[in-house]
Amino acid sequence: MPKTLVTANGTLIQIGRELGKGGEGSVFEVPARAEQVAKLYHRQPDAKKQAKLSFMASTVDQQLLSYVAWPQETLHSARGGPVVGFLMPKVMGRDPVHMVYSPAHRRQERPKAAWNFLLFVARNTAAAFSALHSHGHVLGDVNQGNVLVGSDSKVVLIDSDSFQVNAQGIVHLCEVGVSHFTPPELQGLSSFDGLTRTANHDNFGLALLIFHLLFGGRHPYSGVPLRSGVGDTLESDIKAHRYAYARDSQSRGIGPPPRSIPLSIVPVAMETMFHHAFTENGAAGSRPTSEQWVTALDAVRGRLKPCGASSMHLYPDHLATCPWCALEQQDAIYFIDLGVTYTKTTSGFVLAQA
């Protein structure tokens, strides 16, 4: 690959050292543009992918750039030549979302992050999906690797060139997916080739990410089997709508794991949202939208109260007693008190000091 490439409008771009390599392409620094990086493909994209990238770069706006590492300019070996890559924002200081919702990783990397931080990350994840959906696009391959989170709780979606993009009626499909994030109605497909995803499909993956964040990294379909044939594989349980935390979970043949965060930690309205997301209702097209999740999560963030036993124990005010203390009595410790204190603001509790 030449060290000098050219943008669609003729600007010369010097390519620096390689920062990372994937199966489809590599990411390089751009010495003259500290806030951007270049993704260059190992093989020249076909005509459809080139058209997709050109459309994405030509329609980028600030709302997308606030939440997505979106193509900003296409790159070419020579002016007027085929697309060989693109420039996009440089994402620094952010980790995959599973490093945040995993209690073990969070205690190690962000020991002062309490449940209010996880609520804010969940809210910002929903806002990122909302920005994408408002432009008519669909993420498609929702998974824990393409959502990055920083210490400021801001969320950035990556791998945008694999998203399903609606180019003014021409739909460029996303033909890959991760089984544990695939909604029930799409489970069992041998391939995603030719499949047009919908925002409702995305909303399953979004609800799953939010559930991971609020419930200690648990998967909503992973629980205690109550009859034979249940719990054999996560994929089969997803396909059969075996939502382990549902009020009718016994009839679904599965119950929540022991010492797990109870669903009662969220208000009944949000409990209902999860039910719609993970059961037959959602598969029929009525999963909560990203905008609805933003509103609901903001409402919970505004109703947090501290526990007298630990400054790390923040919980919604619809509960009479602290759920974190109750879990600790079962030797289930989700947050460790390091002497942090919080200050009440109009948007909830924020970290005041170490």
CATH architecture of the largest domain: Orthogonal Bundle
CATH topology of the largest domain: Transferase(Phosphotransferase), domain 1
Order of strands across the main sheet: 2-1-6-7-5-4-3
Give the overall form: globular
CATH superfamily of the largest domain: Transferase(Phosphotransferase) domain 1
Fraction of helical residues = 25-40%
Structure description:
By secondary structure, the chain is an alpha+beta fold. The protein has two domains: 86 residues, Phosphorylase Kinase, domain 1; 209 residues, Orthogonal Bundle (Transferase(Phosphotransferase), domain 1). The protein is built from eleven helices and 18 strands. The strands form six sheets. The protein has a seven-stranded antiparallel sheet. Strand 6 and strand 7 form a beta hairpin. It is globular. The mean pLDDT is 93.
Task: Furnish the topology, listing elements before pairings.
Elements: E1 4-7, E2 12-14, E3 18-21, E4 25-29, E5 36-41, H1 47-58, H2 62-67, E6 73-76, E7 83-89, E8 95-96, H3 98-101, H4 103-109, H5 115-134, E9 147-149, E10 155-157, E11 165-167, E12 170-172, H6 199-214, E13 224-225, H7 234-239, E14 254-255, H8 268-278, H9 280-286, H10 290-301, E15 304-306, E16 314-316, H11 323-328, E17 341-345, E18 348-353
Antiparallel strand pairs: 1-2, 1-6, 3-4, 4-5, 5-7, 6-7, 8-9, 9-10, 11-12, 13-14, 15-16, 17-18
Helix pairs in contact: 5-6, 5-10, 8-9
